[in-house]
Amino acid sequence: MDTQELQQKALTAHSELQSVKAQINALQRSIQLGKVTKQEVEGIGGNGRVWQGVGKMFMSTKSTDYTNSLDSESSDAQEKIEALKKKEAYFETTLENLTKALANVSS
């Protein structure tokens, strides 16, 4: 491979890595928001009713059902984060290898 190809692959790997990191951060924020929301809803106590956003409208739902859906969303986000961490490791390794290859080509 020539230097230009290696540089192009390194740029692609770098941009993919940044994208994966941004996705992980967004999912972590989502999990944190879910935790805070769950604490607030549990503060209502009992089987109170809350308004849950659904698209462009709101539905009245039991607080227990809402906290269960928050837990489900949180576990889904956690699974996505685990998959993204694997991609992140792959892109970091790829970027490292490409950087070493570029250093070898230029020396």
Characteristics:
single chain, 107 residues, mainly alpha, Helix Hairpins, two-stranded antiparallel ribbon, 2 helices, 11% strand, Prefoldin, PFD_beta-like, chaperone
Report on this structure.
The structure is a single chain. The chain has 107 residues and is mostly helical. Helix content is 80%, strand content 11%. The chain has helices at residues 3-44, 63-106, and strands at residues 49-54, 57-62. A two-stranded antiparallel ribbon has the order 1-2. β1 (49-54) and β2 (57-62) form a beta hairpin. The chain is rod-shaped and about 70 Å long. The relative contact order is 0.18. The mean pLDDT is 92.
The CATH first-level class comes to Mainly Alpha
Unreliably modeled segments: none
The CATH topology:
Helix Hairpins
How many domains is the backbone divided into?
Answer: 1
What order do the SSEs take from the amino end to the carboxyl end, as H and E?
A: HEEH
Beta-strand portion reads 5-15%
How do the strands of the widest beta sheet line up side by side? 1-2
Protein name: Putative prefoldin subunit 1
Keywords: Chaperone
GO molecular function, one term: unfolded protein binding
Family: Belongs to the prefoldin subunit beta family.
